[in-house]
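Hi W., the nicotinate mononucleotide complex you wanted:
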Amino acid sequence: MKAFNFPDIKPVATSLESALMEKINNKTKPLGSLGILETLALQLGLIQNSPSPTVDKPKMLVFAGDNGVAVQGVSPFPQEVTQQMVLNFLAGGAAVSVFCQQHNVPLQVVDVGVNAELATVPLLTNHKVGMGTKDFSVSPAMTEAEFLLALGAGVKEVDLAHSEGKNILLFGEMGIGNTTIGAALMSALLSKPVKECVGAGAGSTTAGIEKKIAVIETAFTRIEAFYQQPITDLSPEVIAQELAGFEVVAMAGAMLRSAELGIAYVIDGFICTAALLLASKLNPHVVDYGIFAHQSHEKAHLALLAHFKAKPILSLSMRLGEGSGAIVALPIIQSATVFLNNMASFESAGVSEGL
Ligand SMILES: O=C(O)c1ccc[n+]([C@@H]2O[C@H](COP(=O)([O-])O)[C@@H](O)[C@H]2O)c1
Ligand SMILES: Cc1cc2nc[nH]c2cc1C
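Structure:
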């Protein structure tokens, strides 16, 4: 298969690093006392290559898709919940909807592959790649063409947000069965045992988790027999086509485009971080532009975050997905730029500096 040539992402420019650190350190506070807010201020300054970064124009993009593997009973919820939740997002009744309303953040729901005809639903962007992926335990989840279309859907949504002048993007997803996908991707891309990558998802029991492990291992056996190689030796493009979901690939595309445009983006929970893992295997610089919102209660998220050496902002035992952790973290991210831009310095306020 031909390599996927995604446009180049530049590592963040570090020329302003010392100026930013000096600005942070000269604020009227003991050195380092704003903790992770200071780390965020530095990261945002580097991403925007500005001593005064702003993140006052956010947009939430929630990518929704169905996953064929749901027929294996890997989720406690039926597949039609994906479609029902999309309607709930749009009606304003979901967690992500009410938190976006709370913070006055526009919410765009993107249908990349919900297994229902939603074309006429107002407010929904339609980038449908298909009516959901195939069951990866018996066949590849998607074709190469579908993989590229799903990446492109994420790219298009970010281009639109960029044209609207947005300066921070929040990503979320909805897809029954997609914690199994996140687990499979994590195991294949990081060469970790499947059992370390699965968790309860939307509420699977111990037996349900065992089922998830068995379904992923069946898929790996199928894939390794087909390619005559260990799954961990396959390219990230092939691994994604074999195992991913349209919503996960679209999020990876959105992250890659966001990074390419120099726009900071907020990473939600386990599935969103699995999408980042895929994106990072396509271009490792994508990670520099991402802000880790929270540590999900999904068991494997901790190890996935550790892979990125990430220190997420929040740890609230949330395990909902749909961008809920990203939107809850947004005011804190905004506070990082507010202190950097508005706080007095020792000099301007006439406050004596410490030793
Ligand atoms: O992202 C997370 O941390 C997360 C953890 C557990 C569940 N979810 C959400 O729950 C759905 C997937 O759960 P499941 O059990 O159907 O695989 C999907 O719609 C996700 O948004 C999300
Ligand atoms: C009800 C419900 C809401 C969700 N939001 C994101 N994933 C979800 C999964 C379920 C099952």
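The pocket of nicotinate mononucleotide (ligand 1) is lined by residues 75, 77, 173-180, 201-202, 204, 268-272, 296, 298, 301, 319-322 (CB under 6 Å).

W.
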